[in-house]
Structure formats: C-alpha cells, structure tokens
C-alpha cells in the first residue's frame, strides 16, 4: 500500500538529521516511528479493554483483592518465601 505524508519542513529536517545520525534513510526512520506508535496505541487500547472487563466483572461479582493484599503478595516475589496469588474475595 503506497501512502504519502505531508509533513512540515521543520519536522522533515529533524527526520533527515536523525536519519543521518543513525545512518538510516528518512523512510526507515518514519516507518519505525509509525510502527512504534501503532504498537504503543494497540497496547494502550488492549490495557483499556482489559480494565473495562475487570471493572465489569467486579461490578457483577464484587470479587477483589485490596491494594495491600496485592503489595504483600508482590513483596514475596523472588524470595524463598514466595507466595501464590491470594484468592479474591467479596
């Protein structure tokens, strides 16, 4: 899919300068930037959807862990006394 972009001269110059510093083409720099942006936004949307699903499940069941319960559990990670995740409760 061929796509063209119109970018301001100042940004164009910055891309060209960065490409020169990195010994890459401006095209490579722009593709990399777009790929990283899309991946970041997809991850953000996935996190949002997961949070909304968790909130809906909580509203339906009331099952949860408190922040302190989670911190206590996480503080055992990497120790000889590492604990399993605590059970959710209402």
TrEMBL record:
Q: Where does the record place the Ribbon-helix-helix protein CopG domain?
A: 2-41
Share an example GO biological-process annotation for this protein: regulation of DNA-templated transcription
* CDD domains in alphabetical order: RHH_CopAso-like
Cite the Gene3D superfamilies for this sequence.
Met repressor-like (1.10.1220.10)
Source organism, top-level taxon: Bacteria
Protein's UniProt name: Ribbon-helix-helix protein, CopG family
Organism expressing this protein natively:
Sphingobium cupriresistens
- Source lineage: Bacteria, Pseudomonadati, Pseudomonadota, Alphaproteobacteria, Sphingomonadales
